[in-house]
Amino acid sequence: MRAHAADTVSSLPSGMKITVGAGGASLRPMMWMFLAILITFLTARTATRVIRSGSGARAGLGNVRIAGNHIHHQVFGILIIIGTGIILVSEMPRGAALDAAAAVFGVGVGLTVDEFALWLHLDDVYWTSQGRKSVDAMFCVLVITGTLIGGASLVTGRVGTTAWWSSVSVIAVNLLLCVICLLKGKIVTGVVGIFIGVAALVGAIRLAKPGSWWAAHRYASRPVRAGRAARRYDQRYEERWNRLRDLVAGAPSEEGPR
After folding, report:
1. Each residue's pLDDT tens digit, 238-256
2. What is the pLDDT of residues 24-72, one digit of tens each?
3. Does residue 48 fall inside a structural domain?
4. 62-87: burial string, b at 16+ Cβ within 10 Å, e else
5. SS3 of residue 55 by DSSP
6. Is residue 132 part of a domain?
7. Which of 178, 192, 185 is nearest to 219 (CA)?
8. 148 neighbors 33 (Cβ within 8 angstroms)
């Protein structure tokens, strides 16, 4: 029985460690980072929605202001990322210390990416329609870190071997598909597709979004395909995705900064 348990542990991906018996499951650094990012994002969105509703004072929540300036939570996230990065490089922790560093780093990533739209537009667009880009960015980060939990390896085999060339060829084709997705205006699909090849393949095959580089250069002389793309990505399509974004992060308004 013990031999069978040992074989089970050794056959698991390198990114996940399972302790058989009373020890239970032991999470590895990437899992700690993923959980920290997810929990931080949900906590930050819950807190900001409570503050926005006007009931933050009763819950002990409020915007942080120093010398009259509103300090966004991405500032704390950036400081956490910098501090944790310095520790990871200088001390190179292992074991429980590495798990803790990964979790703290994940908190910093969660706080920073939750305000992705602000550092993209260099403006306080958190509660505007442009702020939905933060939700898309967070989705990409969660998919990437979630995929890496199992210890995914992009390149396999020794350099120059058949396995190595095969994996490199697959990566090259996949990156080409991701570029096509980006040219078709499918930013999230192109980013996620780097780690999930099926997403890149589907995104590259399907129609381009109107207004994208691909649509402008490939559909200009093909009105039928341009019409299909316009119907495929009409206002209802955007509204469906916006409802999902708003369910997670809160509906925007055009009233300006928080």
Report:
1. 999 999 999 988 898 865 5
2. 444 689 999 999 999 999 999 999 999 988 887 777 888 888 888 889 9
3. yes
4. eeeeeeeeeebbbeebbebbeebeeb
5. coil
6. yes
7. 185
8. no
